[in-house]
Amino acid sequence: MKKTLAMAFTAASLTLAGTMAANAADTIRTYQEPDLHSGVKIGYLDCTIGGGIGYVLGSAKEIECDFRSSLSGERSDHYSGAIKKLGVDVGFTTRSRLIWAVFAPTAGYHHGSLGGIYRGATAEATVGAGIGTNVLFGGTAGSIHLQAISVTGQIGLNLAATGTSMTLASAN
Predict the structure, then answer these.
(1) N- or C-end of the chain: fewer Cβ atoms within 10 A?
(2) pTM exceeding the 0.85 threshold for the entire prediction
(3) What is the DSSP letter of 77?
């Protein structure tokens, strides 16, 4: 029990440190990040991440996502890309699933507007079944934001505390 709590505390600390490091490294901004609380939830992004092996210093996995609008009658959009981690990433995982809430400055959504690069940090602990936390910010010129913190469900044997980047491109 104490080991589990210690591992959870360590993972949370490393996630916070990674987020602070990622924000410090990104000193030049061409846009100002809007406050998510003043944004409008326009739907959610449901992603499947391919399985793979962490190579001690990082990993790269394919990602496939479907955006579903919270507005009735809106069609869904499909995105593909990659999620890359740099840091301590040891072990293997099977396919995992990640769900994000999507916020925009206004209630509208335009095809392909979730495409772009998101950066932040990840902490995962998996022995059989496990969870991970992702803190990622970015997107197309900051106009659309994913929920700041997401939870990943996965199966495998893995321990990761990494800086993370995710690239999404419209696949429609």
Answers:
(1) N
(2) no
(3) E
Residue 157's SS3 state is strand
The ranges assigned to domains in the chain are 2-170
Rounded-to-integer distance, Cα 106 and Cα 144, Å: 9
Neighbours of 157 (CB within 10 A): 13
With H, G, I as helix, E, B as strand and everything else as coil, classify residue 127. strand
Residues 6+ apart with CB under 8 A from 67: 43, 44, 45, 76, 77, 78, 79, 102, 109, 114
Closest to 97 (Cα-Cα) out of 163, 155, 149: 155
Which of 151, 144, 147 is CA-nearest to residue 126? 151
User: What six digits make up the tokens of 154?
Assistant: 């996965």
